[in-house]
Amino acid sequence: MVTFEDKLELFKSMVYDKVKEESDARMEKMNAEKERILSQNKERLQGEAEKIIEDMIERGNLKKQEIISQETMEGRRRVLLKLSGFVDTLMQRLYARGAEFAKGEGYREFFLNKLEKAFACIAAKECAGRTLMLELTAKDREMFEADIRRLFERRGCENSGIEFLELAEEHIGGFVLTDKDGTFRINSSLSEMIDENREKVGRMVFEYLEENGDDYE
To answer: Structural domains in the chain?
Structure first.
C-alpha cells in the first residue's frame, strides 16, 4: 500500500528532477553564452593586439627608415664636404703650379701661341678701325709687348688700335682680349683655364674616394 509519505517523496523527487533539469539547461545555456562572449572578446582582443603589434612594427620600420635616411644624408654630407675639401686642395695646387709655369721658359711660347690664335679669331676687316683691349699682367706686358705688337700688325691692324690693361694678379698669367664695343671676349687667363677643369678634378676626386674612401674616414 502506497502511503502518503511515499507519494510525498515521489512528488518531491519529480519536482527536484524538474528543477534540476531546468537548472542544468539554464546553466548549459549560460555556459554556452559565456563561451560565445569569451570567444568574441578573445577574437576582438586578439585582433586589437595584432593591430597594435602591426602598428608598432610599422612605426618601427618608419623609424628605422628615418634613421637610415638620416644616416644616408649625413654620409652624403660628409662625402660632399670631403670631396669639396680635396677639390679645393687640388685646385690650390694647380694655381700654385700655374704660377710656377708663368715664371718658366715654356710660358713665353705658350702665351704668344694663345694670343696668335686669339687674333686669328678676329678678321682683319673687323680689327681695322676698332680698338682692341688686351688685359695682361704688368710682368707679361714688360716681357711680351714688342712681340704682341708684331702679332697685332700681322693681322693688318695699326698699333694705335690696341690698348693694354693690367690683369689682376689673381689670374696668375695669360690674357683677356676684348674690344671697347663688347662684341667679343676671349678669356685665356691661366686661372680661367684651371677653373674650367674644376668639374673634371671633382669627378677624379670622387672616383678616387669611392675606391679608397674607407681610408679617409
So the answer is: 102-195 (3.30.2320.30)
